[in-house]
Amino acid sequence: MQFVDEARFAVRGGRGGDGSVSFNREKYKPRGGPDGGRGGDGGSIILRATEDLSTLEPYARRQVIKAERGKHGSGNNRAGESGEDLILEVPLGTQVFDGDGLLADLSEPGASFVVARGGEGGRGNGSFATSTRQAPAFRERGMPGEEREILLELKVLSDVGLVGLPNAGKSSLLRALSAARPRVGDYPFTTLSPQLGVVDQKAYKGPFVVADIPGLISGASEGRGLGNRFLRHVARARLLALVLDASEDPEGAQGTLISELHAAGLSERPTVTVLNKVDLLDEELRSYLRDAFPGAFLVSAATGEGVVEFRDHVEGMVSRMDRKTAPAGTEREHRVYKPTWRGLRVGRENGGFVVSGEEVERLAMKTDWENPEGVERFQRELEKSGVVGALRRAGAEQGDEVRIGEAVFDFR
Hints:
Elements: E1 6-12, E2 45-50, E3 64-66, E4 86-91, E5 94-98, E6 101-106, E7 112-116, E8 147-154, E9 158-163, H1 170-177, E10 195-199, E11 208-212, H2 227-234, E12 237-245, H3 250-263, E13 271-276, H4 283-292, E14 297-298, H5 307-320, E15 345-349, E16 352-356, H6 358-366, H7 372-384, H8 387-393, E17 401-404, E18 407-410
Parallel strand pairs: 1-3, 2-4, 9-11, 9-12, 12-13, 13-14, 16-17
Antiparallel strand pairs: 1-8, 2-7, 5-6, 5-8, 10-11, 15-16, 17-18
């Protein structure tokens, strides 16, 4: 499966089912009243983090994902079946964004977030029977589900991130440290996507995850090369191992890495320096590197020299670090309706009047405009809620066009 760390698509909750208009027609019940049931609620779309995925590739070519709509109500007060929720599994470390910013950070197994809620089912005529209105012949329509465009960004979760310039030998070092087998070639930019390996030795109390991060180049913090796509994964690593090619200007490579990490705000992250490919050096050069890079590990991923000592040191650092886990889900308040004005607002537009407000917009969306009784009920509710009075005060006269949400009608 191809590694994909970004996906953008629209999500749409299921529409609620319509209520039913029905009257009891059973034998021996001459006064059987209205018994239309309500519609079922629409299904919601839920994102859930799983350890079974490591890429967003399943969503790379999706444009719109919809949940199931609720079933319509029926006679004998039978409610429609609710639409089934649609659960989309995403890799650990997935962040969810919309146009207003971060919605959720799914960094724990099983963490979930409702990204698009299903619409509410409409009531049937059985719900509107009263002592003064004993035979209502109207129902409510189901509400549409929430719809939004989202961006998923995957930030690989790891204990140790191997950071280095292209061709520093990070993939080879990952092979030497773990059972991971990334493809390795004799050319720059071998790794174009993060590769994960688990270091799991019997001597260790707990395994830890090492990530081979795509090669960094100068200017990555400004978008050059893989740019922010590289830095996105570095930001999730708890410990950074700076892998330098000991045979080719390790001082310059270290300066570039430190400069880019500082520009990205990652200079405070714990680091350890690794000089790779020391099998290509004589003893004089090795001695020079020990003096020039005090505390650094001299290793050869090709021969295994120094790998065990480096691995043990990293395991000790990881075990001493307090795990700082991100919150399972950071949810912002969001609503199905736009605008989310809670009061009542009347304004002029193109020679007519526009009424906005959460309750009045809900009322318009639920009204069955093909049912005369339903339209009459809508007009009564406008009078009771003060909308008619507000329109008159704004200067509305009989015959003027009024728009509430998507509903357009003439003022009476």
